[in-house]
């Protein structure tokens, strides 16, 4: 499970056995979620270049301690939506201030450049910490941990079903795509392509809803009454206290750098 | 369209989070326990659809299909799309954590509005007519999303105004593609499984 989500090779942990690699992987999932939240709030509040670089450094240190593949994680960190990149590139030209250079009558300002760099650093530091601390969990563990953190039960159930079926539906999508390809479908910018992919999405919807009916029937056979018992119990151990202390210290340090710089 | 952490003003981030939490809570209230498996599978379906890349000229765009989600799920689109965005942020690094509320609002609010506005018509009409309405719904949802994104940016600072305006025009082709795809998807779904668009409305009562 979570093959599409984690992009990792299938392994035995999918049967539910705990996976333990790297120092961070053994830390209580609840502590990791709370730490990611705290780190995000603190980092967004920072505004000096030094403090933001320190935050990115902290996130990189967490990456080193985690079992995540560094190269792929960093690539995912850097990737942003086209429109955000576009906005960052535009910022030097739209923020008034001291001029760096003029291009086609537009003046780039140091203040705008600083703001663009600030946003870029914040976004990358937060997303990296989030992926390293929370994204390294088994998706199912994330559901259990959110439940333990008092997230609404229905929301957690909805998330668990989503996680469970992303993989199944992705495989279905690929099967449909292969059968289109076998029949000579080549995507291009034309009406035929849009209609065909629209039909593909429609077919996926129909199959998804029919699948969900079978799932509900099968679950009712097994005594489903609308609730799924979430059995995983977390124990707060000493290494979790050490982790929490270290994360608090990191955030305090970032705050100190911000004030002093 | 994922806004990243650090781009928006604090007031916008907090306001977005509060509104999104309200929307998710309302959506969950419209979701009886019996409907959760169906909503989960559909949420996974829209997650998968967002991985589809459609060619558009020399480039390609990935689908959002929030209009379709709103038409199928109604209010339940709010929690379903929130879950999708949460998973994308955590596992793919799309978007961010503190902006999750704003991003949910951007995608889910237009979806729910389109669902409430056009859902009943689509459940009633014949497939070709339903497809036309769905096309309009798909276009409206993406237009709504770009507008909410633009509002979030402009409320955060005037320096984002040119970017917000350009983002809107850059999304015109995306709006057209989403409209065509939503129309085609609804046409097929109405032919193959006519009751699909009524299933969440019954449960919502």
UniProtKB/TrEMBL annotation, chain A:
It is a multi-pass membrane protein. Keywords: Cell membrane, Membrane, Transmembrane, Transmembrane helix. One of its GO terms (biological process) is cobalt ion transport. The chain crosses the membrane at residues 33-65, 77-95, 115-134, 241-260. One of its GO terms (cellular component) is ATP-binding cassette (ABC) transporter complex. It is found in: Cell membrane. InterPro entries: ABC/ECF_trnsptr_transmembrane, ECF_CbiQ, ECF_transporter_component. Belongs to the CbiQ family. This is Cobalt ABC transporter permease.
Automatic annotation (TrEMBL), chain B:
The chain crosses the membrane at residues 12-30, 36-56, 68-91, 97-118, 130-155, 167-189. InterPro entries: CbiM/NikMN. It is found in: Cell membrane. The keyword ATP-binding does not apply. One of its GO terms (cellular component) is plasma membrane. Pfam families: CbiM. This is Cobalamin biosynthesis protein CbiM.
